[in-house]
Design goal:
Elements: H1 4-10, H2 20-46, E1 56-64, E2 75-80, E3 88-91, E4 97-103, E5 107-114, E6 117-125, E7 131-137
Length: about 150
């Protein structure tokens, strides 16, 4: 049997967390962890704010062929009513869908072109609506034929 005084001498220095070298790293980890959390909270609170621009309108829709199938690759151009130059452009995806953001407060014209089809135009009221969903059913181009 080992005497109680000898048990203290045989005890491993790190077991049980009583050794002084055990507490230094633990204290440093706790200190730096709390400081990092505090600094992160300060950056989040005092960090740069996102600049808010004017409200925007979502113009989205689908483009279909005359047969009813989607038409990928159609060119969509949007401009303010009364202007000629298109400011926003998109291309329909595999499912014939498209989407654009435009500033709120004006009326817009949406033009859709596709090879082999006649161009179509629809008007969008961007003054009161926050989103507009359009559907275009394209008709084949007549290639200079007269009725």
């Amino acid at each position: 049997m080992i005497a109680p005084a000898q048990r203290e001498k045989l005890r491993h220095p790190l077991r049980g967390g009583s050794h002084p070298s055990y507490w230094k790293p633990v204290a440093l980890i706790l200190l730096f962890g709390s400081l990092a959390g505090w600094a992160g909270a300060q950056v989040a609170k005092d960090g740069p704010e996102k600049k808010k621009g004017p409200p925007r309108v979502v113009i989205s829709g689908m483009v279909f062929r005359e047969s009813g199938f989607s038409l990928p690759g159609a060119s969509i151009r949007v401009h303010r009513a009364g202007e000629r130059k298109a400011r926003w452009e998109a291309v329909s995806d595999r499912q014939g869908e498209f989407g654009l953001w435009v500033p709120q407060g004006a009326e817009y014209e949406v033009h859709v072109k596709a090879k082999g089809y006649e161009e179509q135009t629809q008007k969008v009221d961007g003054k009161s609506n926050l989103s507009e969903r359009l559907v275009f059913h394209m008709t084949p181009a007549t290639a200079g034929k007269k009725p």
